[in-house]
Amino acid sequence: MTAEEDCVTVIMVTNIAICDDEEIFRTYFRNLLVKDSFARSQDIRVEEYDCGEALLAAWEDGTARPDIIFLDIRMPGLDGLEAARALRQRGEKCLIVFLSSLSEYARKGYEVRAFRYLLKEEADRELGKVMEECLRELGEEEWFSFAKGHQEYRIPIKKILFFESRKRIVLLHTAGESHSFYQKLDVLEAELGERGFLRCHRSYIVQERYVRRWKGNSLWLEDGTEVPVSRGFEKEVNRRLMLRKIE
Residue 11 has what DSSP assignment? Predict the structure, then answer.
């Protein structure tokens, strides 16, 4: 390097938006984010909005392009669900983490592709886990590899909707294709459980992010596929999908 050359360092900054009508909570949550980012040496930029209308206005004029939105559900005027729906309709693909003191809205979050659901009273305890998962989602691509015959296949984990077991054969389903290979579903569950996959039936493992609706003993995925939930897995399915916790 000559004396005239500059030493350039590229710093990755994660843009975060907090949208909540309570100023006290916004300040509290911003402090939690700063503390978490300091602990993991992660550079963040945080913007605050006191209502859904303000968030949408900032998105429209280009001042808000967050990677992650922490979005309160219950707000006067445009609530969090309506704001999230409007953002999705406008093509915004950022990660949405719903904030609330109630878990009753969790099911509706799947309609707007919510990434996580964080109870306010658990924010100090669970934020680190949620941020870790968000940053992993925003980071490098992860691949699922398997062999069939003498050929090895690699599928981006993000694209996998669900796995289906048919005796000794496992079918891997994405939105556009399916692959079959020999494996036990128990082995896949152990390997993928920490990456957002959920066992809902002795013959099915789904990726949580693609669940759009669930009722009774069925889950509906983003592509319209209905997947059964068996009684033995029902309790764990409800727990995971209601709070979207990261264990």
Answer: -
| pLDDT tens per residue across span 16-28 | 999 999 999 999 9
Query: How many whole angstroms separate alpha carbon 25 and alpha carbon 245?
Result: 21
For the question of whether the overall pTM of this predicted structure is more than 0.85, the answer is no
Short-list 102, 107, 129, CA closest to 246: 129
Residue pair 26/48 in contact by the 8 Å Cβ criterion? yes
Report the DSSP pairing between strands 169-174 and 160-166.
antiparallel
Q: Are 46 and 167 in contact (CB under 8 A)?
A: no
Give the count of beta carbons closer than 10 Å to the beta carbon of residue 150: 5
* Selection from 229, 45, 128 nearest residue 116 by Cα: 128
Amino acid making up residue 179: H
